[in-house]
């Protein structure tokens, strides 16, 4: 029942694990182990990767359930009997936006799945609040870590290397965010433009050829104006997902329906009719949980990947700190249903910094 080989112990951070068998459900495992299903879900979701989160039941790909250490019967009963904590909201059921202390680093993972295969890009991004003005607009600084991994490796093709190198010109990036946590503009176009000369020189020292020249021409056209940089950056999945304007009123029913736009194609906005829903109580791990689920309605141009008739789903789930109302982790996924499905996913998770000993 329990697996404690060294490889599995280290992978799960030395927690006990249960190997999920064919036909297992959350309820059946709960009965087998004699542990409340809510407690199994709570502990597993605290330590698992975002794709392995348990919602109503196990996901089909789940291999191991992460279990809490052995506890006394009294402590188990204390957890089971604990009453749910309500989410604390502001006036008109508004989810507060309190970014002033934000200076956090996140692990970011992009996954693109199609019939051609799976491409995964991973990086680290820091988000830091800088200031606010009298109109309640906030200035944030975004920095990207120097290491980018594509399918588990440092970029080793010219195109991937060029993309990674030219992206350096953007950082640090300063953006303007409104009072609802929605990204609305860039702030430091002049700084970005001023960095280009050095980056361009480094590119030409390392790469050469017609492809490189055309790539540089494209970058320079984009950098010509703040409007062009903003238009290009609006296809940045991290900025769009993280600064998604979730700090709004959720009504007495904790949900509402509203259109949401997201760039499934570069520099092309796709519109979704989305149900926005907040759980009235903190989840088993103590997070505020917000879900967005919807379907494609219109891209603004009447097409999407050339297949406007296909069903396209938008699903996002946010887990927020219950005290600071800041994002701890999130998962956003868009699926295009066809013979060979296309799936685009971004996973964002706060990097927990270990406290240094004095």
TrEMBL record:
InterPro entries from the UniProt entry: LysM (IPR018392)
CDD domains to which the protein is assigned, alphabetical: LysM
Identification of the protein by name: Peptidoglycan-binding protein LysM
Species the sequence originates in: Flavobacterium chungangense
Residue ranges of every copy of the LysM domain listed in the record: 16-62
Domain of life of the native organism: Bacteria
């Amino acid at each position: 029942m329990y697996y404690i080989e060294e490889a599995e112990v280290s992978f799960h951070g030395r927690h006990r694990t249960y190997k999920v068998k064919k036909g297992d459900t959350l309820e059946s495992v709960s009965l087998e182990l004699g542990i409340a299903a809510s407690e199994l879900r709570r502990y597993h979701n605290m330590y698992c990767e975002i794709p392995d989160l348990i919602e109503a039941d196990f996901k089909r790909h789940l291999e191991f359930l992460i279990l809490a250490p052995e506890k006394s019967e009294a402590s188990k009963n204390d957890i089971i009997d604990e009453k749910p904590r309500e989410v604390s909201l502001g006036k008109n059921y508004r989810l507060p936006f309190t970014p002033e202390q934000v200076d956090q680093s996140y692990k970011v993972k992009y996954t693109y799945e199609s019939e051609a295969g799976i491409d995964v890009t991973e990086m680290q991004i820091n988000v830091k609040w800088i200031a606010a003005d009298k109109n309640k607009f906030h200035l944030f600084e975004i920095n990207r870590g120097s290491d980018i991994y594509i399918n588990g490796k440092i970029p080793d093709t010219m195109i991937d290397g060029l993309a990674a190198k030219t992206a350096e010109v953007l950082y640090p990036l300063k953006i303007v965010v409104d009072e609802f946590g929605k990204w609305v503009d860039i702030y430091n176009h002049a700084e970005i433009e001023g960095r280009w000369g050095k980056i361009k020189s480094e590119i030409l020292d390392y790469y050469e050829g017609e492809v490189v020249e055309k790539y540089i021409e494209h970058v320079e056209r984009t950098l010509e104006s703040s409007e062009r940089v903003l238009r290009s950056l609006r296809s940045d999945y991290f900025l769009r997902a993280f600064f998604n304007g979730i700090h709004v009123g959720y009504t007495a029913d904790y949900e509402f329906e509203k259109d949401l736009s997201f760039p499934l194609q570069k520099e092309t906005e796709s519109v979704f009719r989305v149900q926005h829903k907040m759980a009235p109580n903190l989840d088993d791990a103590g997070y505020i949980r917000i879900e967005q689920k919807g379907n494609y309605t219109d891209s603004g141009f009447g097409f999407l990947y050339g297949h406007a008739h296909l069903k396209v789903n938008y699903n996002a789930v946010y887990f927020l700190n219950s005290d600071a109302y800041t994002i701890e982790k999130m998962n956003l996924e868009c699926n295009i249903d066809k013979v060979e499905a296309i799936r685009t996913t971004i996973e964002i998770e706060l990097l927990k910094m270990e406290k240094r000993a004095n």
